[in-house]
Structure formats: structure tokens, C-alpha cells
Amino acid sequence: MTWTQNNLDLIVELTLNHVRLSVIPIVVSFLLAIPLGWLATRNSALRTLVITGGSLLYTIPSLPLFVILPLVIPTRVLDETNLIVALIIYGVALMSRSAADGFASVERPTLDASTAVGFSPAARFFRVELPLAGPVLLAGIRVVSVSTIALVSVGIIIGSANLGTLFLNGKQRGILEEVVVGIVLSLLVALVFDIIIVRLGRLLMPWTRKDGPVVVTR
Amino acid sequence: MNVLLDALRWLIDPAHWEPGALSPLPIQDRLVEHLLYTGMAVLIAGILALPLGFYIGHTGKGRQFVIAFTGSMRALPTLGLLFFLLMVFGYWLSYDTAPIVGATIAFVILAIPSMLAGAYTGLESVDRQVIDAARANGMTEWQILTQVEIPLGLPLILGGVRAAVLQVIATVTIASYAGLGGLGRIITSGIGLNDYNRILGGALLVTALALLIDGAFAAVQRGTATGGLSDRPAARRLATSRSPRPPSRESA
User: H/E element holding B202?
Assistant: First the structure.
């Protein structure tokens, strides 16, 4: 454990950077995927476009995407923006499918009923469709969160400093402990994010709570 | 888009395909390596994961395990796992065998969750009534598995294989960073030489390979789908697949 003790500052710094690099893509891809997923339920051509486009983008291996991006967007090769944009692309690719599934899971009669009782289209979206699609959206964003956090570490190849730095540095200097610390922390970050997302989901969608009063008074 | 043309020109330059060219070239050698690593890992992972997935899907035992396992495996950083295994095997294997053994094990570990989930959800997706009917007709459990469940679940099972293959192809690219062959070598040597045509050429080649193989799998999957299954939107990518499972199974 000597290496860990001697390098706590570095570990903390890299972990925080890892968290920062993960949070942005997770939040942005969630926000971008919702309108895309909603559009996909409106007509089948859009659906095909969103789903096929998403899976094609998701197919591109990460390292090539990181090096191709600077050509498509005006950034330098070793710019952190490339990593964030690439992660957003993967996130949206995964999430828009979940969003499409989520909105598709809202029953047509429910929508018709809400229209009939006088919801405006916007109110219907925010107060009927979005909450009802919520559980599927939650499941989707959990997957995005986990895979984004795991992918961030590949960013070291294009010069980003995050927990992946520990893998590379540990390998080059022959310190197995450093690699292990990197893996464990990466898993921990993913776990903490997952717990936060699930908690947020319970908070925002109290009706999905499993540990309701019925079970408690048993 | 000039850079793109230059990269394409680099790719089709016959000198880069000449046998015996300097290290990360010729391109076809790296391509063959890439496919070889991928094929080997997917084969081993398939031998391990598919029977287990079929067992879980058929009996319904251990499905909580699959869900938890595939979920937590997603959190494992590929590069970290790879470097960890390379180092561990480096301690007690020779200099030339350690990378390939360590890397193959890493690829296998990465390929297993998708295949396991695919095999399990594939069997799970089969209508319970169909299985009950097969059983009522006197089919043995083995016949139900091989003649009913696997054929009907094939699109989802193949979907799992497809996801695994694509993940391994992507990871083999990164593996070159740890001194392994494959197409990633072209990209990393390009980064080292500051040769942008080479970086981009390699990147385009890997992307094209991934898309090509994905397309081939899509075609095969479509070919194996039975009429009732072909309209399932969740069949294509397992990440979001939700499989409702009626509780009637245990009573069968």
C-alpha cells in the first residue's frame, strides 16, 4: 500500500477529474436523447433514423472515434473536448434507444385520455409522457453512466488525465498496485454514480418505490 | 476534408500493403492479426458463455446472477483490465507469450457478459406457451432446448454474439497500446510518428471493419428471425433489453 499512501494527492486529483469528465457526457446525453427518443415515437421513419443512427455510432470503436473527431469538430487532437464529445455521442446513441423504448411504453389510451381531459401538448409531455417513461429512462441512464465512466479511461490515449492515467503509468513503471487502485476507484465511481441515479429516480418517481408502506408494516 | 482524402490515399497506397514492409505495415498483416485476436477471444468466450446462458435461460436458475454480473462487468474499465492482466501474466510467463495470453483472457472476459446476456434473454424471449406445448407433446428437455428455444431465440442470441464481437474489435484496437499487434498498431505508430495520414487511415480502417462486421451480423440476424420476432425493437441491442417473464414458468 506504500504507493497509494505516497500518491494520495494524485489519486484524488485524477478521481475528481474522472468524475468531471463523466458527469458532463452523462447529463448532456440524457438531455439530448429525450427529444430524440420522443421524436422516434412520432413516426416510423424517424424511429429508424434514430435507432439505426444510434447503433451505427455506437459501433465505432472508441480510439478511432477519438482521433477522427478533431477533423469533424474544430478542436486539436489532444483537446479534452474530443473525449467529452465522443462520450456524448456514445451516450446519446445508447440513451436515445432507451428513450424511444420509454416513450413507446406509454399506452396510447393514456395519451388520448390526457388529451381528452384537457392537457395541452406541452403539459401532456411533461406531466404524462415523461413521468410514465421515467422508469425506462432511468434504466437507460444507468447503463449510460456505467459505460461512460468505464470509457473515460481510454481518453488517456489522447492525453486526458483521469483514472486511466493510473493504468498506463502503472503498466509503464511496473507498479501493479497502481493499476489495481485505478480499476477499483473506477468501479467505485461507477457504483456511487449508480446509487445517486437510483436515489434521484426514487425521489422524482415516488410511485416506483418498492419499499412502500405495505412492505414496511409487514 | 482534405485530410480525409490524404488518409484514404494512405490506405490504398500499394506500398503500404507490400509484404515485408516496415513494422506496423503491411496493412493486411495487422488486419489478419486483428481478426485472429477477435475470433479467438469470441470463440473461447462462446464456449464458456453460451452453454451457461442456455442453462440459465432454460432452467430460470441464476437469472439474478446474470443481471448483476453483466451490469457490473460494464463498469470494468477495459484498458485497466487489459493492463492488469498483462502485468500479472508478465510475472510468470515469458516475454513473448505473456501479452497474447493476458490480452486474450482480457478479451474473453469482455466478451462473456454480452454473450451470456444474449443467450439468456434469447431463451427468455420464447413464449412460455410454446415451451409448454413442446413439453406437452412429449419433447425431452434437451429437445425443447435445441429444437424450440435456441431456434426461436436465435436473433437475440446472435445479438449477444454481435455485441461481443464489436466490443472485442474495439478493444483489440486499444490493446496495441500495450504492445500487441492488430490495426491499433497503425494508429499508435502514427501517433508516435506524428503522421496524421497514418492515424486517420488506421482509424478509418478499424471503423470500416467494425461497421462491416456489424452489418454482416445484422443481415444474419434478420435471416434467422422468425416472423413473430422480427418486429422486436429491443432485439438489436441488448443494453436496453427488458424481458418480461411470466411467473407461470415454475408451475410448468
Answer: helix B196-224
Range from B19-23, B89-93, B208-212 that averages highest in pLDDT: B208-212
Q: Quick one: DSSP state of residue A89? A: H
Closest CA to A88 of A57, A50, A64, A52: A57
Cα distances (Å, whole numbers) of residue A163 to A9, A10, A22, A98 = 13, 10, 11, 28
Rounded to whole angstroms, the Cα distance separating A108 from A169 reads 55
Judge contact between A116 and A174, C-beta under 8 A: no
Residues A208, A189: Cα–Cα separation, whole Å: 25
Closest CA to A29 of A126, A123, A137: A137
Q: What is the DSSP letter of B226?
A: -
Spatial neighbors of B56 by CB under 8 A, at least 6 apart, are: B62, B63, B65, B66, B116, B119, B120
Q: Cell 515485408 belongs to which residue?
A: B20
pTM of the model: 0.79
- Report how far residue B53's alpha carbon sits from residue B249's, in angstroms, rounded to the nearest whole number: 17
Percent of chain B predicted with pLDDT > 90: 6
**Between chains, do B206 and A64 touch, taking CB under 8 Å as contact?**
yes
Of the pLDDT bands very low, low, confident and very high (cuts 50, 70, 90), residue B43 is: very high
- Nearest C-alpha in A relative to B4: A71
Helix (H, G, I), strand (E, B) or coil at A162: coil
Residue to mutate among A11, A167, A176, A194, with most B CBs inside 10 A, is A167
For residues A48-66, average pLDDT: 82
Instruction: Using an 8 Å CB-CB cutoff, list chain A residues near B214.
Output: 55-56, 59
Highest mean pLDDT among A18-32, A80-94, B8-22: A18-32
Q: What share of chain A is helix, strand, coil (3-state, %, to 5)?
A: 85, 0, 15
For residue A174, which residues of chain B lie inside 8 Å, CB to CB? 87
pLDDT (tens digit, 9 = 90+) per residue, B102-122? 888 889 998 898 898 888 888
Q: What is the pLDDT of residues B45-95, one digit of tens each?
A: 999 989 988 888 888 888 888 888 887 888 888 888 888 888 888 777 777
